[in-house]
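Notes from the pairing session

We agreed to fold both candidates in a single pass and log them together. This is the raw record for the first candidate, unedited. Please don't reformat it; downstream parsing expects exactly this layout.

Candidate A
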Amino acid sequence: MKMAHSRTASTARRGRVLPDDACPNCGTMMLEKRGRLRLPVNGEEISVPSAQFLDCPKCGEIVLRLQDSKRLHQDAIAIYRKRHGLLSANEIRVIREQFGLTQANLARLLRLGANTVSRWESGRNVQTAAMDILLRLIRDLPGSVDYLRSQAA
């Protein structure tokens, strides 16, 4: 599976410019399809049932446009979270907002990298099971945010 990008590198070798929807492998016009694709998340193969992609009818090459690749990744993470009973991206955002925290504030309290919470909330990354438990403790135990603030000082 390849991600669609500028054709200059692959077409320069052949000396021709291909249309955007042409197969980078054989040059045949690709067909837009929906189907099952697999993507690894935290070392586990996740099957996304209705991924959108371009498929070459001649050689079978599969190409993802940038927006399709992003959607596949987000859908795979959502499936992974559901399968493992982890908080959703929206649930993490609600917890953070419930305590009036910015993404950077929450990251500091949890001793994480500055953009980690942003990636969780946007569906670009998934939290570990340990971080999920900590987020639930923050949500469910009064005073936990104050305690974390005292420890972060």
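Candidate B (folded immediately after A)
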Amino acid sequence: MHRRRRTTLTVSAALLVAAPLLAACGSQAHPGAAAVVGGDRIAVSTVQAQVTEVRDAQGGSAQPAQGADQSGQLVRAKLHGIILDRVLDRASADAGVTVSRAEIQQMRQSAVTQYKGEKGLRAAVLQERWISPDQIDAFLREQIQLTKLSRVLDADPSTPAGAKILGAALTKASKALKVDVNPRYGSWDNKQIQLGDYKALWINQVTKPAQAAAEAGA
């Protein structure tokens, strides 16, 4: 039996905030696409919509995230997140991992309790993760996926050995999806599960919060 722990969404403060508007055009090979993953286009407009949601939420926040003039980081953060979501879906499917709506709701309620209300949760993930209110459930779903995938693989991502096992599963899924990023946003690194120069230390910034958060419902 797993010992119940308090839910936490502690996140890295290493992220920089920046959000110039995306250009309307994509690459010549994939017009209008920010990336192609598993043969499916991720439209520039899809990335832009997520960027706009965050910027709108920051505009109404009493504590807007720092560095709003840093070039391109928010755009890359959102594109990185969309690609990572597809990679996680593939790795989860390969391992037979599924996530129910009830699991997401349970984790959200635990997080709301941890942050002393919905307002506290929204402020925390916006400030530290650039996640707007409408993006929270998708974020929690990723956390559950990562934790359940780690358990299926018998990998503890807080250890070097466990991180290597989980990373190998994600790399395998990433390669299978043949991620093709519009060069204007960088290139996708299958080994690091990372977009270009966007320094998303996914083991620290995604997996550890996932493990801690989902164990609350174990």
